[in-house]
Amino acid sequence: MIPTIAPACIPWRCAGVADLQPGDRVAYPLHPGSYSEAKLIPADLLVPVPDGVTDEQAAAILLKGLTAHYLLRRIYPVGPEDTILIHAAAGGVGLIACQWASHLGAAVIGTVGSDDKADLARANGCRYPVVYSRESFVDKVRELTGGAGLPVVYDSVGKDTFHDSLDCLAPMGIMVSFGQSSGPVPPFDPGILARKGSLFLTRPTLAHYIARRGDLLSASTELFDLVRSGAIRTHIGQTYDLKNAAQAHRDLEARMTSGSTILIP
Ligand SMILES: NC(=O)c1ccc[n+]([C@@H]2O[C@H](COP(=O)([O-])OP(=O)(O)OC[C@H]3O[C@@H](n4cnc5c(N)ncnc54)[C@H](OP(=O)(O)O)[C@@H]3O)[C@@H](O)[C@H]2O)c1
Questions:
Q1: What pLDDT was estimated at residue 197?
Q2: How many whole angstroms from 49 Cα to the centroid of ligand 1?
Q3: What is the pTM of this model?
């Protein structure tokens, strides 16, 4: 949920930032205080928004899209030979990650909370949506991979899915635990990773993957290029006036949202 764009913002030169001019349309993925009409921000945290990408699209996609970028392009570079699991496939990050992984040629298994969300995920590149309330995603992975397991699982749900996600991995597979929508994963014995196949575990956060300006610019350029080409579509599931931000949070907590939520100042 990010009113990422400050269209009235005037980028001011910061040491080492020569690629922005006053009047440029800009966006930023991470900086406190985004529920605002105007703000001051260091110029080196801004990225240019190219023609062909609207303010609303940029606001809806930048943080989630940069997250999908480091998940699919840096932690484990996904390719056409891969079958992968993405939890919350109809969520904000999930819908973008499904489209991006599908664009890269991967087969995506995705967990969703309802049939409507299954349809949405499927329409966005998730080849095998699993409604987890009536079907075990572990069984589905075993069935689809002939018991071999997956090279990578992207888990933003946390507590409710963590251990079952480990059971979906092939030996030496990578467990990417990047969120905790259902609550934090309780402490566990790392020996589990050995017993389940010498698994790798990472608990990443976007900030580290875009800390260098070069990484921020290259990832956002790749993302916006895919938006402009139509390979990745933004899904603004709901829009609220900024003054109704509390209702937006209530709806998110009640799991009534899908795709991205934007707040309009
Ligand atoms: N580490 C990072 O760099 C990074 C970056 C961005 C976001 N994140 C994290 O990634 C997660 C997803 O972010 P998002 O913006 O894309 O959110 P979201 O997917 O739009 O919303 C969360 C979804 O998780 C699913 N879910 C499953 N169990 C849940 C539970 N017990 N309570 C609530 N939701 C549950 C719900 O989908 P179903 O109804 O289909 O189950 C819900 O719609 C969040 O935890 C966020 O903090 C991490």
A1: 98
A2: 26
A3: 0.92
